[in-house]
Fold these 2 entries.
Entry 1:
Amino acid sequence: MPSTDFLVIGSGIAGLTFALKAAEHGKVTIVTKKDDTESNTNYAQGGVAAVFGSDDGLEDHIRDTIEGGAGLCNPEAVRAMVSEGPALVQELSQMGVGFTMNTQGGLDLGKEGGHSKRRIVHAKDYTGFEIERALVAKTRGHSNITVLEHHLAIDLITDRQGERISCLGAYVLDTRNGEIEGHSAGITFLATGGGGQVYLHTTNPAIATGDGIAMAYRAGATIANMEFVQFHPTTLYQSSFEENERSFLISEAVRGEGGVLCDKSGRRFMSGYHPKADLAPRDVVARAIDSELKASGEICAFLDISSIGQDKFQKRFPNIFQGCQQRVIDLSRGLIPVVPAAHYLCGGVRTDLWGRSDIKRLYSAGETACTGAHGANRLASNSLLEALVFAARAAQASSDELKSPDNIQPWDYVGSVQSRERVVVSHNLHAVRLLMWNYVGIVRSDTRLAMAKKRLQAIAGEIRDYYWKYRVTADLVELRNLVSLAGLIIDCADSRQESRGLHYTQDHSERDDRHFRRDTLINSGRINLS
Ligand SMILES: Cc1cc2nc3c(=O)[nH]c(=O)nc-3n(C[C@H](O)[C@H](O)[C@H](O)COP(=O)(O)OP(=O)(O)OC[C@H]3O[C@@H](n4cnc5c(N)ncnc54)[C@H](O)[C@@H]3O)c2cc1C
């Protein structure tokens, strides 16, 4: 049975950063469910927020982040993220990440919503691709790191001693041959990213099915703040799309460079919603578009990029320019059709400032984790930063806790019959994604949440029976996780009877600090407002 010092689940920025740092202390195995580069990280466009500008300071970045987080940021997590971020960004640069430089030879700093200063370090508009490329190159061929592609973690292996649960590793499916093996590990690090695929429209690629959060929840870890789902206001509107296809993102940096939202008649509407107009926080912009579309009955809004000019646009945003061209969007009119889509999950496995979950020897960072750094709303480009900082911290803390891997039980192939009813999976996948989009989206209500809960329970029952009856396949594992994720989002949203940050409900449209200025914690089906 395979065993290792550090088992890393996921190969985005969090998993790879952790792996490279942990490899200084022991053997690392990375399991990743597709090719090693396939991750949300790979698609990040805008950049990494970090204080480098001469007119900027750590206190400015901290203040912006806390302001954006709508009263729920953990100030200590914000301070750690903001202060330790710049050095880690410099490490990336030394590793070969080709960040865009300005004419004076310094880092070119972009501006995005919610940030009061220019502080977005970027590689043109394909920052994530560049970071992923460099990190993957460094891990490949590293003498202490083994990378297992097409290996999907199914469940954590735990040991219970009274109240205390320890993580001993994970069961992992080799998706090319259907074999499942137990991987025993001294430390297990969850870095499976977010779960945008739980919504019908999302910027996230197909890997983003919330596996780490669902696995940790099943194992007994505390999950926090799942109601705070960020909808990116501007993804390219396309009249037709395929199931699982991710919505093409039009980065916030486009508005940072002068792009302005308008309706089809050219009427600019953002100044009616927020003093910062087009550079208001994302939730405000997403709700404004949602409200404009509901009022007008139109299917999309437009981003007017005419003030940027086509040449500059093409140079600054080559990836977006090409993406629009591939989708036959005529940019000569200076208008990009846009709609909101699910983008980022602020909630996740609750960790402390060192990436520790409340299961012993189980650590997490990146979009899977909830450190409290984003509070109720994440500022643009703070997520790559958070993943970097807390993955590095987790590697440091977990190396002190490292112990020899334990003996574990092999996987028990209970349902070993191949299913002939695959339609159950595809049908229910679509049903969950549609249900979440329609009932648990940008604007929520008590009635819609109650209806979503009822419908999801029926689907969950069907999937549970199916899961234990047939041979485990990757799409079934992911669907099971998406159902758990949907349930966690609905339960957390239902328990927060106020509107704050990314959670907006028309039945409780005011912020209520007296009752709800606290995290929503959920553990084994029990909601606890800490
Ligand atoms: C289009 C887009 C643009 C973005 N732009 C920005 C930006 O400009 N700035 C910013 O800060 N943030 C941005 N974000 C958010 C940011 O990219 C993510 O939050 C961040 O990359 C998450 O990193 P991660 O390492 O936690 O997860 P990911 O990068 O998503 O990596 C998760 C990894 O886990 C693997 N995995 C998942 N489940 C399993 C399993 N069961 N078993 C094995 N492996 C598994 C995946 O295959 C993948 O390798 C953007 C996101 C998107 C989608």
Entry 2:
Amino acid sequence: MMKRLIGMAILLFTCTVGLQACSLPQKKTNQATKKDMKTLIVYFSFTAGNTKTIAEKIQKEIGGDIVRLETVKPYPKDYETAVSQGQHEVERRYKPELKPLGVDLKDYDRIIVGSPTWWYKMAPAVLTFLSSNDFTGKEVVPFMTNAGWPGTVIKDMTAEAKRHGATVSDAHEFRFSSNSTHYDKMETPESELTQWINQLKNKRL
Ligand SMILES: Cc1cc2nc3c(=O)[nH]c(=O)nc-3n(C[C@H](O)[C@H](O)[C@H](O)COP(=O)(O)O)c2cc1C
């Protein structure tokens, strides 16, 4: 009798542990499919720090790493000279050499890329970045800032990222003032920026 009781206890113990052991890997798999995306924010900014401001707000809210694109040869300090050099570069689809990023894109699932509008196009530094990297298997989220003439920046950034293997989503435009006394005043409602960032925040793989 005693032997049978001990036998049943061992059987019950084995089944319980066995079932738990069986269910553990299942749980892990479910968690793995819902993991947070590892995000990198890459931006170029020149005039008033507008694109930088948005990039930093994104990072503050959703985390991830952030990198500012820097050209090896800096743009002229005089604004008008820089604007006309910018026009010349955009018209030629010039791709200025960039300083090393300091990160490995392989480590990220999602890359949020910000550009100011330069002569209706993305800034040349952003063109260099998008056209010289492989985004296969990654999600690219383009955003841009402008002063009222957005041109084809989002369309062009989307096409460039796709051409290099990315899936593209959640692209967004942000308008700032065209008045030289306050280029840094955002005209897009702050609530629109908050809503967009929340959308990015809640996104999972
Ligand atoms: C070279 C150059 C060209 C620009 N061309 C445009 C343009 O075509 N359309 C526009 O809306 N704003 C244009 N702007 C204004 C910037 O896109 C706008 O102020 C932007 O928010 C600046 O971002 P940043 O402060 O991050 O550089 C231009 C600025 C520069 C320096």
